[in-house]
């Protein structure tokens, strides 16, 4: 099945800083999603981005499917951005959604 | 707004007990999912259902079963709980109808999670 790797595993930043989270996947995909899990465990879908770039407020994501990676950008970080960010890809061959192990982001006031 | 609720936030059970985790969604979604989340392993799919009474195995179905008798409710059953099933369990739902592929590609909405401890 498809392997999904995220980097860095942990990131600690000062409030106001910008950050880039990376998701690499082992095979061609035409589906990639980014999720945020807040410190209380609630998981929320951020982007469905099989290719190209999307923006939503201070967050944007870019997927380059041919090079098998996606990037999540967070600008002007706020403490509410803290939590774990997951990417997930749909493995159509095996009919499953595979999640990466996540990047834990901590924003310090 | 989509609302996905899970029956308990925290649950403590003993080895060998039968455990039911309930999930309910209120947006008439076709697809429902059960995941477990463990440190360093991300989320792993246990089972999902793309229609009432339909179920598909995910990555780690061993030791679990599911039931979907009504569209809005998806139950995860641990027939005989074991300590290695101590984990955070997350339920999700998504809208797109069809079979497996729409279920995998549509936006998933998650419940708050149930942290299960098996002693």
Describe the structure.
The complex is a heterodimer of chains A (109) and B (119). Chain A contains no helices and eleven strands. Chain A has 109 residues and is mainly beta. Helices cover 0% and strands 59% of the residues of chain A. Chain A starts with a strand and ends with a strand. With 119 residues, chain B is mainly β. In chain B, strands 2, 4, 5, 6, 9, 10 and 11 form a seven-stranded mixed sheet that branches. The radius of gyration of chain B is 13 Å and the shape is globular. At the A-B interface, strand 5, strand 9 and strand 10 of A face strand 5, strand 9, helix 1 and strand 10 of B.
What's the structural blueprint in terms of helices and strands?
The complex is a heterodimer of chains A (109) and B (119).
Chain A: E1 4-7, E2 10-14, E3 19-25, E4 32-37, E5 43-48, E6 52-56, E7 59-64, E8 69-74, E9 83-91, E10 96-99, E11 103-108
Parallel strand pairs in A: 2-11
Antiparallel strand pairs in A: 1-3, 3-8, 4-5, 4-9, 6-7, 7-8, 9-10, 9-11
Chain B: E1 4-6, E2 10-13, E3 19-25, E4 31-38, E5 42-49, E6 56-57, E7 65-70, E8 73-78, E9 87-94, H1 100-105, E10 109-110, E11 114-118
Parallel strand pairs in B: 2-11
Antiparallel strand pairs in B: 1-3, 3-8, 4-5, 4-9, 5-6, 7-8, 9-10, 9-11
List keywords for this structure.
heterodimer, A: mainly beta, six-stranded mixed β-sheet, five-stranded antiparallel β-sheet, globular, B: 119 residues, mainly beta, seven-stranded mixed β-sheet, 11 strands, 5% helix, 50% strand
Radius of gyration of chain B: 13 Å
Largest interface by residue count? A-B, 24 and 23 residues
Largest sheet of chain A: 6 strands, mixed
Q: Structural class given helices, strands, pairing of chain A?
A: mainly beta
Strand and helix order of chain A: EEEEEEEEEEE
Structural category of chain B is: mainly beta
Shape of chain B: globular
Number of helices of chain B: 1
Helix content of chain B: under 10%
Number of strands of chain A: 11
């Amino acid at each position: 099945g498809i392997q999904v790797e995220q980097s860095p595993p942990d990131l600690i930043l000062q409030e106001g800083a910008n950050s880039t989270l990376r998701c690499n996947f082992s095979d061609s995909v035409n589906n990639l999603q980014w999720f945020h899990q807040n410190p209380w465990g609630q998981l929320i879908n951020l982007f469905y981005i099989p290719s190209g770039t999307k923006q939503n407020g201070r967050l944007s994501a870019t997927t380059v499917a041919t090079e098998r990676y996606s990037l999540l950008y967070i600008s002007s970080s706020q403490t509410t951005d803290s939590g774990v960010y997951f990417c997930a890809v749909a493995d159509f061959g095996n009919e499953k959604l595979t999640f990466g192990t996540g990047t834990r982001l901590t924003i310090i006031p | 707004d989509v609302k996905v609720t899970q029956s308990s936030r925290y649950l403590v059970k003993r080895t060998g007990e039968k455990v039911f985790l309930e999930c309910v969604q209120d947006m008439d979604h076709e697809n429902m999912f059960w995941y477990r989340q463990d440190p360093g392993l991300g989320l792993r799919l246990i089972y999902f259902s793309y229609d009432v009474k339909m179920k598909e195995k995910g990555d780690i179905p061993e030791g679990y079963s599911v039931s979907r008798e009504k569209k809005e409710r998806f139950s995860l059953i641990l027939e005989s709980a074991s300590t290695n099933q101590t984990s955070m369990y997350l339920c999700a739902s998504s809208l797109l109808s069809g079979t497996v592929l729409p279920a995998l590609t549509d936006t998933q909405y998650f419940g708050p999670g149930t942290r299960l401890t098996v002693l």
